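Exercise 7. Predict the joint structure of the components listed below.
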Amino acid sequence: MKILSDIAALVTGMWITWKHIFRRPVTIQYPEEKRTPYPRYRARIVLTRDPDGGERCVACQLCSGACPVDCITMQSAEDKDGRRYAEWFRINFSRCIFCGFCAEACPTLAIQMTPDFEICKRDIMDLVYEKEDLLIDGCGKSPDYNYYRHAGIGVTQPRGSGAEEKPPVDVRGLLP
Amino acid sequence: MIYDPIDIALLLGKIALVFFVILTLAAYLVFAERKVLAWIQDRKGPNRVGPFGLLQPLADLIKLLTKEDFRPIGADKWLFYLAPAMAAIPAIMIFAIVPFGAPLTLFGHTVQLQVSDLNVGLLLFMALSSVAVYGVALGGWASNSKYALLGSIRGLAQLISYELSMGLSLVPVVMLARSFRLSDIVNAQAGCWFIVYQPLAFMIFLISIAAECKRIPFDLPEAEGELVAGFHTEYSGMRFGLFFVGEYINIIVLGGLATTFFLGGWHGPFLPPAVWFSAKVLAFAFLFIWVRGTLPRLRYDQLMHFGWKILTPLALVNILVTGWWLVLRG
Amino acid sequence: MPKLIIDDITVEVAEGTTVLEAAQAVDIPIPHFCWHPALGKAGACRACAVKMLEGPVKGIQMSCMLPVQDGMVVSTTDPEAVAMRRHIIEWLMINHPHDCPVCDEGGECQLQDFTIAAGHGIRRYSGKKRTHVNQDLGPFIQHEMNRCIQCYRCVRYYQEYAGGTDFGVMGSAGRVYFGRFQDGELESPFSGNLVDICPTGVFTDKTARFRARYWDYEMAPSVCSGCSLGCNTTPVARYRELLKITARKNEAVNGWFICDRGRFSNSAVNDPQRPRTPLVDGRESTRDEALEALALRIAETEQLYGTGSIAIVGSSRLALEAALLLPQLAQLTSAGALCYFTSEEERATTTSHLGLLSGGTSASQQEIRESDCIVVSGCDPLQDAPMLALAVRQAWRDGATVYVVGDGIVLPCEFTAVAAVDAVPLAAAKKPVLICSASCNSDHPAGLLVQHSQLKLAVIFPAANSYGAAQLAGEQGGVSLERAVASGKIKGIISVEADIPAHLLAGIPFVAALDWRMTETVRAAQIFLPTTAWVEMDGTSINNEGRAQRFKKVMNPGLPIRGLDPAGHPPHLHRTVPPGGEAQPAWQTLALLIERVSGEPVTEPFSGRWERLRGLDAGSEGVMIHDL
Amino acid sequence: MYGDCYPDMETYLFYILAAVAVIGTILAITEKHPVHAIVYLVSSFFSLATIFFLLAAPLIAMFEVIIYAGAVMVLFMFVIMMLDLGRTDEAGRPVLKQWLLPILLGGIILASIGVIAAGYASAPSAPGAITVRDFALTLFRKYGVAVEIISMQLLFAVVGALYLGRRRTP
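Solution:
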């Protein structure tokens, strides 16, 4: 009998919702109760430094290229020692959707996401973060990584003395 | 029509009481609905305004009153303003005929706890509930919006269809009570509630009133998934509030009528009659909320199919059977 | 015509075509590094491996080395070929540094593209990478030898194509080094093309170093305004700053390359001294105010000194659109003189040389490259139009004889010095070309053209749109400003991107200037209206052979963000028009002025016989003017 | 309960309601917009129903509302909404020629009223409330056959409508 099974289905549904009335609510009353996000939580973006204290960001513009909402803009420039760095670096957090693509794209592990999700501001212009607002004094995740040691060109160290590098070829040497 | 000033005072008092109770109850029904739905969904519901969120209806009221009263371009001005009232007023008026307690004796007068005990009470209910369609239809049409128009066309068709089965499901009640007068119907159930004799009619009536007050699973006129908010899409402020509160008044009134027709009205052991009546009405209100928390919305063709091809024939068969039964019993 | 099948697509190509080119003809991409359409094949990188399934040769073959033959069945997707290419790429990547983030080639790098395409995502080699010491190659080219994949493109271009001698390949085996024998500036005037031709980041543009990425570039097809040749370029801009200029292929004109002068000529556009706001008597104002004042002054001048006291002055660097509106303006203001040239000599020589070219006798660079006898008469192409010299070299490489009339002329090829053009055996040549300069009227080639019907002429004009200016001057009866001023009637000058020497301006009470450069005329002008540089507008110019070419707007006018706040980041401001962004193309300003004077709006500069230029595609080879 | 009312109050009510009914009907006729016309007509029906109520015919009053206001007019409105007649404001008013017949008929009605008013000084007094039982007895005993015939007709109409409106499978 189809009608009986239909009624049974209705009653089952009603019974399930009835049971849920007496369950404990899962709601967390946010401003009073706060929970600690996981370390990999994707909230406020920071720029980290390498173990030597230099800026990790090389302004390669991969993050701005990966950003689906175009909230990252920057200008790269050359430092006196030949290091590529961000002359200015701007994240517009009023546009950011915290997707994490920028952190995923970052080849130098400079851009990282933190669990700090409370970044509301009264004035929307305060949500435009410049480099000095973003840069932190630490390595964040992967504390040992220094991009220029692995880049394969000599910028922070003499040529040929980075990790996995042979000393420079002597072109004028006669030996094969 | 009434000579005695005390009678007039009592009448006015009853009207005022009914108004006050119904409006307050409707407001708190909104609150109760949000709470119960929240519990069903393992949430807490409104809990910020006042203790346990009890002042939420007040806050909502202030919000609705202070919102911009907006009228879309191209809307039909007078009908647009009139429609919310046309939706809410018939619902309140129906309560005039509902007996909500046993007759009292006060100042030497026998007081019917009922605003007006018409001899065609049940027909008045039918008349007013058929007129309530205008609020929905005109509101949606006057908004000059395609969503609203679609909502109101759906509402029109749905309300006409389910009114039929609702009316037919009440015929056996009249046959049993042998009167259209609601106090007679209640008194006829002093011994045994009509739900015992007429479980099928009760089910049909229950389903039909759910459709009449446009509740889930029959909320197609305002199906927010497809029509934004259906016939009241373009309404804001207190005009929207009237539509909104009208729906909850409808729940109370229709709950009261279902109580009157099938659950013996104010009859019940031990407790005072008015308490019995309120308990039964609130149980109906809870049932509506519970159903809303459980069932999904029907598709439009399913709704029409169900109304015309199942409910109406069933109600007719029920009348036939009841008639034969009454004839055979003598 | 051999017929072959590549990836189930039947292709019919000319004899001698390689399989790689045949595949490209039907849009099947095959990775390649050493092969380049302008340089031909070398077979050095082995990245273009395909599998020959049927036909005269079978198995894995290098598609760039293999001429097509009838009945070949080629598969570029055969697992064996794919594996081969993947391994080649992996080999090439073994010594390649992991510095894409700090490499300017990143994003526009062929090696990057083909590495991704080959699916080589993770390095398996755990050994050490070879490194090289870089050289300082001067202010234009940055050298990063670690990135080299030994495709030999650079040395083949530099030595064979461009005829440079100071750059070459050294070392052997895994130690091959591409560079100069010692640090120092590259000598070839075509060295900038190393940037374009290197498939990876060994040579990058030092002037645009660390400025932007390919995906952020604002680019549009454009035309070089450096000389009268009209080589096709793709300027690159970012944040309202012209970063660099790259070559754009146009087989008929410049082929694949441009000269260094055209490539590294962006400083004028980015000049912080560029005038960007309208001025009325030295006071900053709006465009409307300045136009109002200009119209008023014109009327005043005419009232004061009578009609015909105004001179409308265009120039040979002015785009064709604006030049076409000048006669209209001259007529409306009943101007006394309509000048396209300032100096009488320039007007005379340019116009007379133009008369020689009207019959379709002009030689394109392509025709020079295919010529068998070239006479360079009394001009120095390397100085005045460098790409002509490169074209002459290509002809010489194909066996043409080159004759030079005149002293002190250097060409990047071997040539025979002769005393006069008459000494050249022109009659024996099949496709002779005479290269001369419009600024030198001593040896007029009119007679030669009558003698030798097959002789074609390549005239070097003084500026980018000289041809157009001379054409219009001839049609509209324009005189030179020199002569107009000498008549003594001119009391007011409206200069439209003209460089007027101070002595001509001396006695003129009213001067108005429209320009985008800070010239003497702009300084002397009472009313100034800013116009846009060629990269900031759509426009048309006519090159030395009479070819009209369209250049497109690359970037919006305005102060570069870089110059706004030198201390730090760009200001937190919302505005619809950037600072200094009010400039508009000269022809639009002229149109507004004409509208103000006549009351009728001008919407389209091209009318009459010029109408065909309206829809001119910037990506096309251009339209010859005498075809119009 | 209805027998002993204040006669004057009843009369006032009657005149007010009658005025509403007449004005509502006139507006329903002259209003160019069909939806507005329906609203006027419905208000006219309501006053009419109340007049019936005053005349001690509650059953008729209820049927007036249920059938005319609640069903017929709603169906009209449904059709109007579904058809979407567009801008009806541009519809022309009837010209004098078209008014002639209504004026003639109106004149006849007015004349009849005048004749009746001259003949009878007051309306016939209410004979007491008609109960549902009376109504039912009249309907099903006295006119039982007619009711059955009409219901048969309606049944045929329903079957016919179903036949015409059924989904045809090619």
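Discussion. Chain B has a mean pLDDT of 85.
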